[in-house]
From TrEMBL:
One of its GO terms (biological process) is protein K6-linked ubiquitination. Pfam families: Ank_2. This is Predicted protein. Keywords: ANK repeat, Repeat. GO terms for molecular function: ubiquitin-protein transferase activity.
Length: 419
């Protein structure tokens, strides 16, 4: 058994989740203590922000509430470390947590959320030297945070997200202004805290939250307006848990702000929120930005076109001309968005097929794939020859279902000819 323990400790130190699982299956205790620091191996994995290893240990029965010599627990140490995902994994492993544990967690998270991370690190370590700051990105979700290290102690600046998610989990309805302040402390749509606040408020789907979010669009500071736009977009998407979408068709209320907004990032988010409505005034706003200097704005224009009750675009000649102009946009991000729209436009205008055929020569393979797929769906025989222009695929990428559309077109043709 001693060899199994040493094997587990070494695997945790190396961050080898597969070896950790193998050691546990061989009989190692998931609460094994690392002899170098006298702490359970779970604490080492938590401190290393090693989520796969933590998951393996928890699945095998490691105790996130195990009392430690300093009076903490692995879960409390996770809160100190500031990783939103890490705290969530440990806090939801044993459900429900006892009320005193929940209160202690909330108090701990609130302390960090209300304290400057660097200042708290200096207090904890007693050191005055420079801190090391590293940007850490989540490749799967796309979020990022800042990781701060001083004297061998490392924390991440996600404590406001930790507090926000725990409050929501335990039924605490934090005031809108308090949550907005947390997001604005990290004014970037990609930051974990901003994203968690938007997710939390977006699930409320009530009129009060809608009005408060819309009021932020009147703020002179662009970060406040960006938050307001992001919240409105989230509210329009609705509560993904319950499926409620009471604001799905209220994008038309945002027209005055879309007409006046000067910040390109804010404008893009407002336009995105409006695209889920089908009011004719939304199309007019979209087309008014046809020559906007920011590609993120231009890329949204096709989605602003008015739709019929069955969701199909009511494409007027001048609107189609605008979209076809964007199909030749110098920015690939815009061309890809337009290609997606054209590929899903099922009306029979020949110029749509011509635009898709032109896009099969695009420099980006993803656009060529979308254009060939669009031609195939239109039963345009040019898709067969254009398929050869797609070129070799990156085998590391997941398979793209659109690559089968030409063969589906050919089968439809064969079936039609056999009748």
């Amino acid at each position: 058994m001693g060899g199994t323990v040493e094997r587990l400790v070494a695997a945790v130190r190396d961050g080898d989740a597969d070896e950790v699982r193998a050691s546990l299956e061989a009989g190692a205790d998931p609460d094994t203590v690392d002899g170098t620091d006298g702490l359970p191996v779970l604490c080492r994995a938590v401190a290393a922000y090693d989520e796969p290893v933590v998951e393996a240990l928890l699945e095998a029965g490691a105790d996130p509430l195990r009392p430690l010599p300093d009076g903490t627990t692995p879960l409390l140490r996770a809160v100190d470390g500031g990783s939103h995902h890490m705290v969530d994994a440990l806090a939801t492993h044993r459900a429900p947590l006892p009320a005193p544990v929940r209160q202690e967690l909330l108090a701990r998270a609130r302390h960090w959320a209300e304290t400057d991370v660097e200042a708290e690190l200096r207090r904890v370590t007693g050191l005055t030297g420079p801190v090391e700051r590293v940007r850490v990105e989540d490749d799967e979700v796309g979020w990022w945070c800042e990781q701060v290290t001083l004297g061998g102690v490392t924390v991440r600046d996600e404590h406001r997200a930790v507090l926000t998610s725990m409050e929501a989990r335990y039924g605490i309805r934090t005031h809108f202004d308090d949550l907005a302040a947390r997001a604005l402390a990290h004014p970037d749509r990609g930051h974990v805290v901003w994203s968690e606040v938007v997710f939390t408020l977006g699930r409320r789907v009530d009129e009060e939250t809608w009005q408060w979010s819309r009021d932020l669009l009147n703020h002179p500071d662009r970060s406040h307006r960006l938050l307001g736009a992001d919240l409105l977009l989230s509210l329009i998407f609705g509560d993904i848990v319950t499926g409620r979408q009471p604001f799905w068709n209220r994008g038309r209320e945002l027209v005055p702000w879309a007409e006046e907004e000067q910040d390109p990032e804010v404008l893009a988010v407002v336009l995105h929120a409006m695209t889920h409505d089908n009011a004719p005034e939304i199309e007019a706003v979209g087309l008014s930005h046809l020559t906007h200097p920011d590609p993120a704005v231009r890329a949204l224009i096709p989605e602003t076109l008015e739709q019929s009750e069955d969701g199909r675009p009511l494409v007027r000649p001048e609107s189609l001309t605008a979209v076809l102009t964007l199909a030749r946009d110098p920015d690939p991000f815009v061309r890809e968005a337009v290609c997606h729209w054209l590929a899903h436009h099922r009306a029979g205008e020949p110029e749509v097929g011509d635009a898709l055929a032109a896009l099969t020569h695009d420099e980006l393979q993803s656009i060529r794939i979308g254009a060939v797929s669009g031609l195939a769906w239109r039963d345009d025989p040019r898709c067969v020859e254009a398929e050869h222009r797609i070129g070799p695929l990156d085998k590391a990428l997941p398979f793209d279902e659109r690559l089968l559309d030409v063969s589906r077109y050919q089968r439809r043709q064969e079936a039609s000819e056999s009748l």
